[in-house]
Structures
1.
Amino acid sequence: MSPDTDLEASGATLRLPTLIISPTDIARLSRELETLEDLLRQAHLREPNVPARMPRTSSLFEELGILNKLNLLDKTDRQKAASYLENMKNHAPVVHISFVADPSAEFMTKLVSWLRRNIHPRLLVRIGLQPTLAAGCIVRTNNHVFDFSLRRHLLDSRPILIDSLQKNAKQT
C-alpha cells in the first residue's frame, strides 16, 4: 500500500493548513491533541454529565479543526484528527531546504502553498540554515539534492569566467 493509500484508507481525507509547515508542527499538534484528549477524559471522570469545555489551544490546532470542519470536543473527530496526524508523521513527503538566513513566515507560507499545489498536497518542509551559501538555497529530498545557491552558480560559471579573462588578456 502506498503512503497516499494509507492516508486515504484511514479515512484521513483531511486537508493540511498552509500554516502547518514541518514535521515538528505535526508532532506539536499530535501532542496538543493528546493533551486535549487527556483533559476531556479527566473532566468526564470528575463530572460525568457536565458538558466539557474546550481548553485554550494553539492557532495551528484551531486552523486544523476549522479547515476540516472538525469539532475537536467530539471523540470521533479527535480520533479522525489523531489518525490523520499519525499518518502524516509516518508517510508525508518531507523536503529539506537550507537557506542563508531564517526565511520570513510570509515567504514560508507562500513557498509551502506553492509546493503543495505543484508537488504534493501533503508535503512538509524542514528548514535549515547554511550561511556558506552566500545566496539562494539547497533543496534536499530523499533521493536528490538541488543546489540553487550563488556559490554553485559561480562554480559552474568558472570556465566561462576564465575563458573570458583569457580572451581579454590576449586582446591587451
Note: The chain has two domains: 1-91, 93-172.
2.
Amino acid sequence: MVKQCHVIGGFVALFLLSFSAISYGQQSEPKATQNLTKEIRHQLVLLPYYSVFDNLSYRTEGSKVILGGQVVRASLKADAEAAAKSVEGVSSVQNDIEVLPPAPMDDQIRRAVFRAIYSEPSLSRYAASAVPSIHIIVKGGHVTLVGVAENGTDKNIAGVRANGVPNVFSVDNQLIVNTDGR
C-alpha cells in the first residue's frame, strides 16, 4: 500500500505538488491514487478561510485520508474534513488537524512576521497569490515557516526576517526549496 503525505500551500505549492508530490514509499503511484490526491488537494486549497496562517497537510492510505497541520479557526478543521469526505473515492477521513489556541500575543506575532517576510523586496512576489506559498504558524511565541520557496536564498531570508520579529522565541524554518525548476 502506498502512503503519501502532501502539504497544501499557496498557488505555487499547489502547482509544484501537482507535478511532484512528496511521497513516502513507492515513487510511481496508480492513476486512481493520483486523481484522488489531486482532487483532495484541490478541495482543500479552495476552502474559504484557508490563509497564510494555516498549514494543511494530508496523506492517503489507500482510500483513507489522514489530515494534519495547524489552523487558527476551529471551523477550518471541520471544513477540511468535510471537503476531504466529499471527494469521490474517499472511504474515511481521520482528522488530526491541530486548532491553535487563541492568543492575542500570537496574533500580533503572526501579523508582524507576515509584514517582515512579505515586505522584504526579494520575497514580496510570494504574496501575489490568493494564499501565499510561505505559511506562518505561531504557537506560544514559536514560529514555524512551512510551504515552498523558489530557492535556498529565499528560504534563508524568510527565516532571518521571521527571527528578527520582537517577542518571537524561536523560528523553525521548514520551507521546502523547489529544486525541480517548476
Note: The beta strands are 3-8, 23-24, 55-61, 64-71, 92-95, 98-99, 134-139, 142-149, 170-173, 176-177.
3.
Amino acid sequence: MELGAGTGYWARLLYERGVDVIAYDRWPPPSPENPFHGPSAPWYPVQAGDEQVVEHHLDRTLLLVWPTWNEAWPAGAVARFHAAGGRCLVIVGEGPGGLTGDTVFHALLGARGPCLACHLGVDDSPCVCAVRPLWQLVRSVELVRWAGADDACSVYERIDGSQRRRRRTHRACLGSTT
C-alpha cells in the first residue's frame, strides 16, 4: 500500500512487475489542491486517503516515497501502522537532516541525530529525546539518484520486544508485497 502516492508513478512501476498495489493520496490526481502534481493525470489509480487508511491494510507493506519534508503525516502514518499491527515498512527518501520526513518520523525509524529542539535550540522542531523507535532497518538499497539527492530505498520491520518474533517478521517483511 502506497501512501502519499501522488500521481501513482511508483505504484504503476510495482504493478507492472506483478505487485498487488493499492495507492492513496490526500488529494489524488487530478487535483488543484495538491501542490506537487496539481492537474496531472494519474499513472495508476490513486484513491483519496490520509494516514488513517494504513489501519485497514495490515496485511500489506506500507510504502512511503519521498514523504513530505517537515510535515507530521509521515510520522503519523508509521506510528498508526505500527500501533495497528503492521509488520513491514518501505521508505524511499533521505535520512535525518535530508528533505524527507521530519525529526519525529526519523526518530520513529530509529535514525536520528541530536535533538534539534534540545541540543541545538531550534524553536520550530519538536523534541524527540523521548521518542521510542518503532521500526528497525533491515535492508537499504541504493537507487539511481537525481543530482543533489541522497535517497535510498530502506526496508524496516516493526520492533515489538520479542527477538524471536522479530526474526520471523524479518523474513516475512522482505518477502511481502506492497
Note: Residues 163-175 form the longest helix (13 residues).
4.
Amino acid sequence: MKYKVDEKQLSDMYLSGMTTRQIGAELQIPFRTVTRYLKNIGVEMRNSGGFHKPALDDADWLRSVYEAGNSTTQIAEMLGSTSRTVYTWLVRHGIETRARGSEKGHERFTAETRQKLSEAKRGKFLGADNPNWKGGLDNRDPERNRYPAKQWSKAVKERDGFACVECGETEKLHSHHIKRWMDYPELRYELDNGVTLCEACHQKAHGKGFVFQWNHTQKSTRVRCP
C-alpha cells in the first residue's frame, strides 16, 4: 500500500527525538513504513535502544561521573533521562556497576554475618511474639468478598435509601445479615435478610441482646440480632 508522506516532516519528527512507532501512530502509518522512508531519504537511524541523550555516548564522561559516586538516578537527573537508561549505557560501555545498596551508601553484610544474624533470630519472633502478629490465620469466608455478596450488599443499601435504618446516618454504611451468614447459608443473598446499618449501629447489632428496628415493607418490624 502506498502512503503519501511529507519526507521533510518525517525527517524533522525523527530528528526531534520521536521514535518510528510514535511517528507512525501520529501519522497513522505502520512504523516499519516510517523506517523504510527514513532510510530511503538518507536519515541516519538510531540504534534499537531508541533516542537517548548524546552525553551517554561519551564513555569517558559517563565513567567519570559514575565513579565520582553519582548514582544512576543522580546521573539521570543531570541529563533529564531515566536511571534505567543510564544503567543500560553503563553496561554497554563496559563500566562496572555498583550494587544498588552501595549506591545509597549502605554497607553490605558478608555471608558470614548474614548467617550469624539468621542463627540469632532462629526460633524467635514466632506467632504472638512477632510484632506483625494479627491473631492467627484469617478465618473470614472469602465468599464475602466476591461479586454476589457485593451485589447483595449494594441492593440492601439501595433499598434502604443509603441510610442507617436505626439512626439515619449516611456515612460508613454496612449491609448487615439479620440471620447470620455462617448459620443460614441459604439466606445469604436474600434481600429480606439484610438491613443497612452504620458502623456504630452495626457494632451494637453484634453485641449481646441488641435490638433494633427497621422498616422496608412500609411497616415497623422489630428484629433481634443474633
Note: Residues 146-224 form one domain.
